[in-house]
Amino acid sequence: MSIATKTLPALALLALLGGCVKFGSNPPPSLLTLDSAAQTPVGQVRSSGSSPTIVVDVPTVSQELAVQRVPVRATDTSIAYIKDAQWVEPPAQLFATLLGDTISARTGHVVLGSSQSAIVPGEELAGSLRDFGIDAASKEAVVTYDAALMHSSPQSVEKRRFQARVPVNTIDAADAGRALNQAANQVATQVADWIGK
């Protein structure tokens, strides 16, 4: 029996199963992202020699937010996810980028990566993203961030909770994305103003 004769039935079986087996789900029509309302001008140069520096860590999250879907808190003990609402990357990463952009634009700080901070020590912003979804009872997008600002000289830590709530008309991907972007920008502005004080 030749190799072709042996593999032909296997290929036919795979072709038949191809219609039954599905790897992954269909992607939604579009993905959600965050867009910073505060922008640093293109071409502007900032130096750690003349401006304060800060590292913005990706916030920790609960399992509810460790996925790229948009949670809806139906009750205090139950969570669902909005159909066809999916982030382009994990919400914690998107929020950290938004924080960095907003802090840079509003305070003049040079935002460094963690590897660069070993060369130029400065402040470090860490924290926990507690809420980043929709509250069904109040029909609001809710973003809650527990921040910890660590100063290198003198060594100290400040902690503060920030929250923003933005109404949603309908609990769907488009309205949730718009409202969460607005709420995230409000929180990022509050954090930047706290750091820049």
Automatic annotation (TrEMBL):
Domain ABC-type transport auxiliary lipoprotein component: 39-192
Coiled coil: none
Name of one Pfam family that matches: ABC_trans_aux
Xref: InterPro entries: ABC_trans_aux (IPR005586)
The name this protein goes by in its record: Cholesterol transport system auxiliary component
Source organism per UniProt: Stakelama sediminis
